[in-house]
Design goal:
Largest sheet: 7 strands, mixed
Domain Methionyl/Valyl/Leucyl/Isoleucyl-tRNA synthetase anticodon-binding: 684-826
Organism: Anisodus tanguticus
Distance between the termini: 51 Å
Domain Valyl-tRNA synthetase tRNA-binding arm: 891-955
Number of helices: 33
Strand content: 15-25%
Structural class: alpha/beta
Radius of gyration: 38 Å
EC number: 6.1.1.9
Oligomer: single chain
GO molecular function: aminoacyl-tRNA deacylase activity; ATP binding; valine-tRNA ligase activity
Length: 963
C-alpha cells in the first residue's frame, strides 16, 4: 500500500481526501511514497530502453514522445501481419493520398478511422494488413512541376516529354515522401514495407493489363465525343471533377432573322454564351409554342456569319418559359445540344481551340480568347442592330475541381470505357449482400449513380501518368487502325506481322485518367495480375474500404466494378464512408475563409491522441464540426488517464513484497463466484467493466466508433475515476487490512489495464506509454490480446451501488446548497429497509469518504430520528432517505439574517426588471432581442426569488422550533 499523503487529482469532485478522516482507524502505509517512486522509476528506466516515460517520473504525458513510441512500434515489426494458417485476415487499403499533398484534416480523419479498425482487429488476433501508398496524381503533380519550371522561365514544351517526366520524377524523389511522413505522425500502423506508388512497376503492369483485357472484351473504345475540356490544363476531365456553382452572369438577347422574311420576321434567342453562335447548326422552338409555329421548317440566319443559314426546328426539349422560348443549338459546345443533335442528325461544329481561343470557324473572331470574343461580339451585334438587350442572370457555372477555371464542353477524340456492363455487376453485389455500404443511405446514391452511369472518358492530355498502351502505324489512318500491346516491342511485332518489316510505329501521346489507375489499387497492390502472387491469394478480397463519401464515385464504385471484372469478386466486403471536417461554425475549411486547421499544429498543441479521439467521435457519413473546445476537452481526457495511472502505480505493492503481490494476483475476475465474492464497490465496477467490454466490442464490430468513444469516456471518467478511485481510498489508506487493500489494488489494476486495451485503437500513444509503466504488463499493448467478452457481471450489485451513488449525490447537493466548507465533516442519519441498510452500512467508510461525513456520527435505522424536524430531509431513492442535522452545516440564525438581506436585494432587482417590462415604450420600441433578454432575466430572477424565499421560510421554521 502507498502513503496516505497522496492527494488524487483524478476526481472532478470538489471533495478532496482529508487525511484526518477516520483518524481512529488510520494505519501507516507499508510502502513510503519515496520508495514507491524510486521503485517504479527504476522499472521504467530498465524496461523502456529510454523510449517510454512513466507517470511516476513525468507530471503529464509528453506529446514529443509520440514519435519515439511510433518508431519503436515500427522497429519491432508490430505493423506487419502475423500470418496464421486458416485464419481470417483483415485488410484495409489506404486511399492513396496525392504525392503532391501535405497533411490536412481529411487525411487525419481517414487515418484515424482506418487505424482504429486495424489496431482493434490486430488485438483480436486476426492477421491484419493496412496497405499504404501514394497516388501519382496526374493533373496535380504536372501542375506543380510546371509552376516550378515557370519560375525558372522554362515551359514543359521546351523540355520535351522525356526530359519533363525526368524532372517530375526528380521532384517526386525529393518531395513525394512528405505526406507519408506526416501520416506516420498520426500514428498510422501501416505495413510500410508494402508501401506502393501508383507508377511502380507492378502497378503499372496491372494498369496496362486492365486496359488490354477491357479492350479485348470491347469495353474500351476510341471516338470523338462531348467531354469536359479544361483550357488551362489542356486536358479532358471527368464529369466527377467538374464542380457547379451558382454565379452572377449575363443573359444576352439576340435577333436571328428568318431567311426570306420581312424585317419583322425574326426570332430572339437568349444565351449566356453568345460566342458559341458560330457553332449553331439549328434554332429550336417547342412544338406547342404558338408564337413560333409559323417559322418551323424555315431557315434562320446566324448573326455575323455572312448569311449562314440553319434550320428552324421544333422539339419538346425546348423550355417555352426560359428566355424567349427560342433556343440556339450549338452541339459542339453544350452537352444537351450535343445529345439533341445526335438524335436529330444535325451536324456538329467546333468553334474553339484547345486553349480556349476561337478557331477559324469563327471567322474574324478567330484567335480571340473566348471571353474577349464575347465582349467584341456583343459590341458588333449592337452596331448591326441585332443586339436586343442583356440582363443580369444567375447561371450554373461548371468549374474545374483542380484549377477552378470555367470548363468548356467540347467535342474531342478520347478513349472511353463502356460502363453499363460493369455497373450491372456492381449493382448486383450490393443487392445480393456481397457488399455493404455504411451508412446505409449512401447505398441509394450508389445505386442511382450506377443505374444512370455514362461511359467513362479515361484519356488525359498529360505527360505524367500511365501512358495509354496503344500504338499507331505511320502512314495508316489512326481512326481505323491501331495496335493495343503490353509493350512497344510487342506492338512493333504486331505491326510488322501486318504491314511488313520496315514499318514505323508511335505511341498514343495521352495518359490514363488517374482514377483508372487508382481503381485497380487494392488487388494490383497485392500482386494482381500475377495469379500466383502469394499476397493476392492470402489477402484478397480486402475486408474494409474506409474513405470520404465525397469520392464514392471517383474511386469506390469504380474499384468495385474493376474488382469484380478482373477477379470475379468484390474487392472488399464493407465500405465505410466518413463525412467532411468543418470548422466550429459548420463551414467548409478553406484558405479564403482563413478557417483551415492544420493537423500538425493541432498535434503540437493538443497531442495526437486528443485529435484522434475528437475526430473519431463523429457519426459515420456525417460531417464533423471541429472546435478548439472539443480538442481541449479531449486533451484533458488524456491528462485524466495519466493521473489515473499515476494514482494506481503509487498504490500498488512494492516489488519485493511477494506476499502482497501473491494476494493481489489471487483475485480473479473471470469467474461468477469470484465476482460475487467481491465487496460492493469492486463488484459494481468490475460488473460495469464487463458490460462495457461487451458493448464496446459489439460497436467495434459494427464500426460505431462514436458510440465506442463516448461509452469508454463515460465509464472511465464518471464510473472509474470519479467514483471507484475515490471509493478505493477508504481501503487503501484506512482499512488497516492488507487483504482488504489487496482487493482494491487488484481491481484498480484490472480495470485500468482493460480500459487501456479498449481505448488503445483510439488513443494509441498515451495508452501504450501507460501500459509500459504497469507491472507485469507482458508484451506491448499494440499486440496484446483484446479483452474477452461475456465475462460475469452482477446486475444486483450495479443497482445497489447506484443507490449508494444516489445517496452520496443527494448529500453533496445539500452540502453545496448550504455552502458547507469542503473540509467540514457532518453527521447523517440514513433511513431504509433492512436489506438496503445491510449493504449501505457495509460500505459506511466509502459513504463517509465520498460524502464528507463524520464516520463516528453516521447512523442507520428503519425510521426517522426523533429530531428530524431540525434536519434537512433528503430522498435518494425509493426506500432510501437521509436526515442531515442543520446545526452540523450552518449557523441557522446567521443564515436567516444573510438570506433576509439577500432576499431584499433580489426583490429590488426583480421589481426593476418588471417595471421595465411593464413600460409600453420599452416593449414596443426596444429591439426584439433586448426585450426577449429582459424577459428571460426576469423569469430567472423570479425563480431564484422563490427558491431563496422557500429556503428562508424553512430555516425560520427551524429557529422557531428550536426556541
Amino acid at each position: 500500500m502507498a502513503s496516505s499523503s497522496f492527494l488524487s487529482s483524478t476526481s472532478s469532485s470538489c471533495f478532496r481526501f482529508n487525511p484526518l478522516l477516520f483518524s481512529t482507524k488510520r494505519r501507516r502505509s507499508t510502502l513510503s511514497l519515496s520508495r514507491s517512486r524510486r521503485f517504479f522509476a527504476m522499472n521504467a528506466e530498465a524496461d523502456s530502453r529510454g523510449i517510454f516515460n512513466s507517470p511516476q517520473v513525468a507530471k503529464s504525458f509528453d506529446f514529443t514522445n509520440e514519435e519515439r513510441i511510433y518508431k519503436w512500434w515500427e522497429s519491432q515489426g508490430y505493423f506487419k501481419p502475423n500470418i496464421v494458417k486458416g485464419s481470417d485476415p483483415f485488410v484495409v487499403p489506404m486511399p492513396p493520398p496525392n504525392v503532391t499533398g501535405s497533411l490536412h484534416m481529411g487525411h487525419a480523419m481517414f487515418v484515424t478511422l482506418e487505424d482504429i479498425m486495424i489496431r482493434y482487429n490486430r488485438m483480436k488476433g486476426r492477421p491484419t494488413l493496412w496497405l499504404p501508398g501514394t497516388d501519382h496524381a496526374g493533373i496535380a503533380t504536372q501542375l506543380v512541376v510546371e509552376r516550378m519550371l515557370a519560375a525558372e522561365g522554362v515551359k514543359r514544351t521546351d523540355l520535351g516529354r522525356d526530359k519533363f517526366t525526368e524532372r517530375v520524377w526528380e521532384w517526386k524523389q525529393k518531395y513525394g515522401g512528405t505526406i507519408t511522413n506526416q501520416i506516420k505522425r498520426l500514428g498510422a500502423s501501416c505495413d510500410w514495407t508494402r508501401e506502393r506508388f501508383t507508377l511502380d512497376e507492378q502497378l503499372s503492369r496491372a494498369v496496362v493489363e486492365a486496359f488490354i483485357r477491357l479492350h479485348e472484351k470491347g469495353l474500351i473504345y476510341q471516338g470523338s465525343y462531348m467531354v469536359n475540356w479544361s483550357p488551362n490544363l489542356q486536358t479532358a476531365v471527368s464529369d466527377l471533377e467538374v464542380e457547379y456553382s451558382e454565379e452572377p452572369g449575363t443573359l444576352y438577347y439576340i435577333k436571328y432573322r428568318v431567311a426570306g422574311g420581312s424585317k419583322s420576321d425574326f426570332l430572339t434567342i437568349a444565351t449566356t454564351r453568345p460566342e458559341t453562335l458560330f457553332g449553331d447548326t439549328a434554332v429550336a422552338v417547342n412544338p406547342q409554342d404558338e408564337r413560333y409555329a409559323k417559322y418551323i421548317g424555315k431557315q434562320a440566319i446566324v448573326p455575323l456569319t455572312f448569311g449562314r443559314h440553319v434550320p428552324i426546328i421544333s422539339d419538346k426539349y425546348v423550355d417555352k418559359d426560359f428566355g424567349t422560348g427560342v433556343l440556339k443549338i450549338s452541339p459542339g459546345h453544350d452537352h444537351n445540344d450535343y445529345l439533341l443533335a445526335r438524335k436529330l442528325g444535325l451536324p456538329i461544329l467546333n468553334v474553339m481551340n484547345k486553349d480556349g481561343t476561337l478557331n477559324e470557324v469563327a471567322g474574324l473572331y478567330a484567335g480571340l480568347d473566348r471571353f474577349e470574343a464575347r465582349k467584341k461580339l456583343w459590341s458588333d451585334l449592337e452596331e448591326t442592330g441585332l443586339a436586343v438587350k442583356k440582363e443580369a442572370h444567375t447561371s450554373r457555372v461548371p468549374r474545374s475541381q483542380r484549377g477552378g477555371e470555367i470548363i468548356e464542353p467540347l467535342v474531342s477524340k478520347q478513349w472511353f470505357v463502356s460502363m453499363e456492363p460493369l455497373a450491372e455487376r456492381a449493382l448486383e453485389a450490393v443487392s445480393k449482400g456481397e457488399l455493404t455500404i455504411m451508412p446505409e443511405r449512401f447505398e441509394k446514391i450508389y445505386n442511382h449513380w450506377l443505374s444512370n452511369i455514362k461511359d467513362w472518358c479515361i484519356s488525359r492530355q498529360l505527360w505524367w501518368g500511365h501512358r495509354i498502351p496503344v500504338w499507331y502505324v505511320s502512314g495508316v489512318d489512326c481512326e481505323e487502325e491501331y495496335i493495343v500491346a503490353r509493350s512497344s516491342r510487342e506492338a512493333l511485332a504486331k505491326a510488322q506481322e501486318k504491314y511488313g518489316k520496315n514499318v514505323e510505329i508511335f505511341q498514343d501521346p495521352d495518359v490514363l485518367d488517374t482514377w483508372f489507375s487508382s481503381s485497380l489499387w487494392p488487388f494490383s497492390t497485392l500482386g494482381w495480375p500475377d495469379e500466383s502472387a502469394e499476397d493476392f491469394k492470402r489477402f484478397y478480397p480486402t475486408s474494409v474500404l474506409e474513405t470520404g463519401h465525397d469520392i464514392l464515385f471517383f474511386w469506390v464504385a469504380r474499384m468495385v466494378m474493376m474488382g469484380i471484372e478482373f477477379t470475379g469478386t468484390v474487392p472488399f466486403s464493407t465500405v465505410y464512408l466518413h463525412g467532411l471536417i468543418r470548422d466550429s461554425q459548420g463551414r467548409k475549411m478553406s484558405k479564403t475563409l482563413g478557417n483551415v486547421i492544420d493537423p500538425l499544429d493541432t498535434i503540437a498543441e493538443y497531442g495526437t491522441d486528443a485529435l484522434r479521439f475528437t475526430l473519431a467521435l463523429g457519426t459515420a457519413g456525417q460531417d464533423l464540426n471541429l472546435s478548439t473546445e472539443r480538442l481541449t476537452s479531449n486533451k484533458a481526457f488524456t491528462n485524466k488517464l495519466w493521473n489515473a495511472g499515476k494514482f494506481i502505480l503509487r498504490n500498488l505493492p512494492r516489488q519485493d513484497d511477494t506476499p502482497a503481490w501473491e494476494a493481489l494476483r489471487a483475485h480473479k475476475f473471470d469467474k461468477v463466484e469470484s465476482v460475487l465474492k467481491l465487496p460492493l464497490p469492486e463488484c459494481w465496477v468490475v460488473s460495469k467493466l464487463h458490460v462495457l467490454v461487451d458493448d464496446v466490442t459489439a460497436s467495434y464490430d459494427k464500426f460505431f466508433f462514436g458510440d465506442i468513444g463516448r461509452e469508454i469516456y463515460d465509464f472511465f471518467w464518471s464510473d472509474f475515476a470519479d467514483w471507484y478511485i475515490e471509493a478505493s481510498k477508504a481501503r487503501l489508506y484506512h482499512s488497516g487490512d492488507h487483504s482488504v487493500a489487496s482487493v482494491s489494488q487488484a481491481a484498480l489494476l484490472y480495470i485500468f489495464e482493460n480500459i487501456l486495451k479498449l481505448l488503445h485503437p483510439f488513443m494509441p500513444f498515451v495508452t501504450e506509454e501507460l501500459w509500459q509503466a504497469l507491472p507485469s504488463r507482458g508484451e506491448a499493448l499494440i499486440v496484446s490480446a483484446w479483452p474477452p467478452t461475456s465475462l460475469p457481471r452482477n446486475i444486483d450489485s450495479i443497482k445497489k451501488f447506484e443507490n449508494l451513488q444516489a445517496l452520496t449525490r443527494a448529500i453533496r447537493n445539500v452540502r453545496a446548497e448550504y455552502a458547507v466548507e469542503p473540509a467540514k465533516l457532518i453527521s447523517a442519519y440514513v433511513v431504509a429497509n433492512p436489506d438496503v441498510i445491510q449493504y449501505i452500512s457495509g460500505e459506511k467508510e466509502v459513504l463517509a469518504l465520498l460524502s464528507r461525513l463524520d464516520l463516528g456520527n453516521v447512523n442507520f435505522a428503519e425510521s426517522p430520528p426523533g429530531d428530524a424536524n431540525q434536519s434537512v430531509h433528503i430522498v435518494a431513492g425509493e426506500g432510501l432517505e437521509a436526515y442531515l442535522p442543520l446545526s452540523d452545516m450552518v449557523d441557522i440564525s446567521a443564515e436567516v439574517q444573510r438570506l433576509s438581506k439577500r432576499l431584499v436585494k433580489m426583490q429590488a432587482e426583480y421589481d426593476g426588471l418588471m417595471a421595465r417590462l411593464s413600460s409600453s415604450s420599452f416593449v414596443e420600441k426596444a429591439p426584439e432581442d433586448i426585450v426577449r433578454g429582459a424577459r428571460e432575466k426576469a423569469a430567472e430572477a423570479e425563480e431564484k426569488l422563490t427558491l431563496t424565499r422557500n429556503r428562508l421560510n424553512f430555516l425560520k421554521s427551524k429557529v422557531l422550533i428550536a426556541n
